[in-house]
Specification:
Elements (H helix, E strand, L loop, with lengths): L20 E5 L4 H12 L3 E6 L2 H10 L3 E5 L5 H15 L4 E4 L14 H29 L2 E6 L3 H4 L5 H21 L4 E8 L5 H6 L3 H13 L8 H13 L8 E4 L8
Parallel strand pairs: 1-2, 1-4, 2-3, 4-5, 5-6, 6-7
Helix pairs in contact: 1-9, 3-4, 4-6
Length: about 260
């Protein structure tokens, strides 16, 4: 059982994260920005850690209780400095949201190892880096929550996204392993898998005609027949952030019924 008094398990109330200290990686735009808004509205103080300092700063100026720091999640040293600064300003850490991610759609046979390296560095190593830096802070707090934003691509695969999907599948396996390792410290680790979501990343992907056609086909195959909105993903992330520590090692798809667990 978590001894962390900042996580009150009242997930639908506005003050469910009252005075909790949170870090959201990739929090400047898209899904991350919606997570920042949702956690702040639930009472948390939120450090936005993002590569895009200008966008992070703009969001921080709009959201009461949020502040911005610049770092590349793939660079352990730079992330370590930002997370240390965040924890100092937040006076500790209760919640880490590993949201930063990047994708480039291309058939695997047409890709180069340099693209694989970039995808792995951001989508997989970024999660390792932030989690490694957060665990001592969460242990010192007597417990906490880690929520990883993976993807349905990591559950069912995705054409043109083989390495990205492998990173997201790796994130799902990492979530379960870290949940096992840290449960004794009152830390719960869970994973949200968005389906196609209306964000700047998706806009970028859809600039490629073939990728746009694939995305349209995925939406047609989705029972809800539409993209997710970032706020819908943020609701699921906030649920795990405020859930009892007994909810751990779980994977939740938010994809309009595109994927359904057996
Ligand atoms: N949009 C979708 O359809 C979709 C679907 C499934 C999963 N996801 C996942 O959701 C997460 C958020 O995606 P999004 O669509 O909001 O993307 P986005 O590109 O709209 O926003 C991502 C944010 O992360 C930041 N970022 C990127 N690389 C970074 C790095 N190395 N270090 C720090 N910050 C970095 C960007 O500056 C940006 O602010 C990602 O993990 C993505 O893989 C998105």
């Amino acid at each position: 059982m978590s001894n962390n008094s900042h996580i009150s398990h009242r997930s639908n109330e506005e003050d469910s994260l009252d005075a909790a200290a949170a870090i959201v990686t990739g929090g400047a735009k898209g899904i991350g920005a919606a997570i920042v808004r949702k956690l702040a509205a639930s009472g948390a103080s939120v450090a936005i850690i993002d590569l895009d300092g200008a966008a992070a700063q703009t969001l921080a100026s709009e959201v009461s209780g949020a502040f911005a720091l610049i770092a590349d999640v793939g660079d352990y040293t730079s992330l370590s400095e930002a997370m240390e600064a965040a924890c100092t300003r937040l006076n500790g850490l209760d919640i880490l949201i590993n949201n930063a991610g990047w994708d480039h759609v291309k058939r695997f046979a047409d890709t180069e190892p340099s693209l694989w390296d970039k995808l792995i560095r951001i989508n997989l190593k970024g999660v390792f880096n932030a989690t490694h830096l957060a665990i001592p802070q969460l242990v010192a707090r007597g417990g906490g929550r880690i929520v990883n934003v993976a993807s349905d691509a990591g559950r069912v695969g995705s054409s043109g996204e083989a390495v990205y999907a492998a990173c997201k599948g790796g994130t799902i396996a990492f979530t379960k392993s870290i949940a096992r390792e840290t449960a004794r410290h009152g830390i719960a680790v869970n994973c949200v898998c968005p389906g196609p979501t209306d964000t700047p990343l998706l806009e970028e992907i859809k600039r490629d005609k073939r990728a746009a056609a694939t995305m349209d086909a995925i939406v047609r195959a989705t029972p809800n027949r539409r993209l997710a909105q970032p706020a819908e993903i943020a609701e699921a992330v906030a649920f795990f952030a405020a859930a009892p520590a007994h909810v751990t090692g779980q994977v939740l798809s938010v994809s309009g019924g595109l994927t359904m667990a057996g």
